[in-house]
Write a structure and sequence with these properties.
This protein has a single domain, classed as Rossmann fold. The protein is 43% helix and 14% strand. The chain contains nine helices and seven strands; from the N terminus they run βαβααβαβαβαβαααβ. It is globular, with a radius of gyration of 18 Å. It binds NADP nicotinamide-adenine-dinucleotide phosphate. The site of NADP nicotinamide-adenine-dinucleotide phosphate (NAP) has 31 residues, from helix 1 and helix 5.
């Protein structure tokens, strides 16, 4: 008897925002490995072009099944600013031009600002919120229109440990990542009738461009590791499995869920409010 292809994404097309680096790029590689065609997008065109080459190199090295016997392109890049309506609409149109449809949206575009909250300006707060939350909404709406027509689709938002526990001096980021949970549940409820499933992934601490300075070889990083049962940071590639799963037939009845991938950090039951940098002056 043939095995059920639980994780097969052949024939599926994905857009990964923020897909030119870090977690987004690792997810793009994972989706390609499992048969999807993928468009990666971010603001920096040069970075996007480099990422496309890197994803192709990795896919070829991994001998991804559908690549050898398929002359069609399976990865492409697009300039995309998720804070700009026109840019989002143009990017979605480019996905359709290139690949003919859109089945999977991964909202991985993100920015971070660590700052004592007394010094955080409303403009800075809004910029972070606009990128993570309004940006994810813009992309979900534009992609959702196509998914509704197809009566099938899957949206994956990037949440965070700060969606669950307090992390110090990143108030805008934490507010945004809490809102991502609400957005995910709202879309899961509202759009299931259109055949669209919406879920999120909450990665633990993965050194990438967004946080490397904050956690690599710093006191904060050391404390995080002390509260991570697995005793190490994660790797971006370790988040890809969660995205492959959520996008795949294996997750066909999974909707409105947040999949935490954190080496056990949340299980240890602590935020970082007890850390030395958070103690009263
Ligand atoms: N790393 C972690 O520990 C961790 C933990 C939990 C959640 N996350 C979340 O995971 C997601 C990916 O982060 P990462 O760790 O992979 O960091 P990253 O490597 O810095 O990736 C973020 C990407 O977002 C893009 N971006 C930023 N603003 C954008 C905009 N307005 N429009 C389009 N793209 C934009 C950046 O590229 P350009 O500058 O070229 O636009 C960058 O490639 C984020 O949502 C982050 O909050 C990360």
């Amino acid at each position: 008897m043939a095995r059920t292809p639980w994780f097969d994404l052949s024939g599926k097309v994905a857009l990964v925002t923020g897909g030119a680096s870090g977690i987004g790029m690792a997810i793009a590689v994972g989706l390609v490995d499992h048969g999807a065609r993928v468009m990666v997008g971010s603001r920096n065109r040069e970075k996007v072009e480099q990422a496309v080459k890197e994803i192709q190199r990795t896919a070829e090295a991994n001998d991804a099944d559908h690549i050898a016997d398929d002359a069609e392109p399976y990865v492409a890049g697009v300039s995309l600013d998720v804070t700009n309506n026109k840019s989002v609409e143009k990017a979605i149109a480019e996905v359709v031009d290139e690949f003919g449809r859109l089945d999977i949206l991964v909202n991985s575009a993100g920015v971070m600002l660590r700052k004592p909250t007394f010094e955080l300006t409303p403009e800075q707060f809004n910029e972070i919120y606009n990128t993570h939350v309004t940006g994810s909404l813009r992309c979900a709406q534009a992609a959702g229109v196509l998914m509704r027509e197809q009566h099938s689709g899957c949206i994956i938002n990037l949440a965070s440990i700060s969606s669950f526990v307090d992390l110090v001096e990143v108030a805008a980021y934490a507010a945004a990542k809490n809102a991502i949970m609400g957005l995910t549940r709202s879309l899961a409820n509202e759009w299931a009738k259109y055949g669209i499933r919406t879920n999120s992934i909450a990665p633990g601490f993965i050194p990438t461009d967004i946080n490397r300075k904050m956690i690599e070889n710093t006191d904060r990083g050391r404390r995080i590791l002390e509260h991570t049962p697995m005793g190490r940071f994660g790797e971006a590639s370790e988040i890809a499995g969660a995205a492959i799963y959520l996008a795949s037939p294996a997750a066909g009845f999974v909707n409105g869920h947040c999949l935490v991938v954190d080496g056990g950090y949340l299980a240890s039951g602590i935020g970082d409010s007890f850390a030395p940098w958070a103690t009263p002056e």
